[in-house]
Amino acid sequence: MGNCKYCGKPAGFLRSKHAECEEKHQQRELVIQGGRQRIALDILRAIKGSESFDSLEKTITEIEQSSFVPQTERKALLAKGWENSVEQFLEDGILDTTEGKRLTEFKERFALSQSELDRNGALTKTAKAAVLRTFSTV
After folding, report:
1. pLDDT at 60
2. Which domain of life is it from (predicted)?
3. Which helix or strand (DSSP H or E) is residue 39 part of?
4. 44 forms bridges with which residues in the sheet?
5. I want to staple 122 with a disulfide (CB 3.0 to 4.6 A). Which of 10, 86, 102, 112 is the partner?
């Protein structure tokens, strides 16, 4: 007799889970994924905006609590949001000084390391874009 991997109670002969426990787990996972997506969108909006990032911190905390997103994922979600912003800023081929400043402010506000931001090459792209911007104005 096996125990349910979700609730720990006996699940029956040759079973590892209750159908209802698995369904609850899947529903919760959908809520968590939706929370992650909301955080990503709010980060993108905040970086593209002009306000301080203080309200973003509060919004992320509220989403984490209401959507069961583990707080341990916060740094990774912040870095991913920063990467998404870099990609959007570079769609026109140029990272202007205002965009670069917002990215830097975000990086410093949330204490994101270079390795966290360059996991997928986004930090390198911003450095290259800054160099290109410098040479294009000369």
Report:
1. 95
2. Bacteria
3. helix 19-48
4. none
5. 86
Q: Where are the domains of the chain?
A: 2-136
What separation, in Å, do the N-terminal and C-terminal C-alpha atoms of the chain show? 75
Contacts 24+ apart (CB under 8 A), 54-60: none
Q: How far is the CA of 56 from the CAs of 10, 59, 87, 137, in angstroms? A: 44, 5, 20, 34
pLDDT at 131: 80
pLDDT in tens, 86-128: 999 998 878 888 999 999 999 999 999 999 999 998 899 888 8
Measured over all CA atoms, what is the biggest interatomic distance in the chain, rounded to whole angstroms? Answer: 76
pLDDT in tens, 57-83: 999 999 999 999 999 999 999 999 999
Half-sphere exposure of 123 (CA within 13 A, CB side): 13
Angle 18-22-27 from CA coordinates, rounded to 5°:
150
Closest CA to 88 of 77, 99, 98: 99
**3-state SS, residue 35:** helix
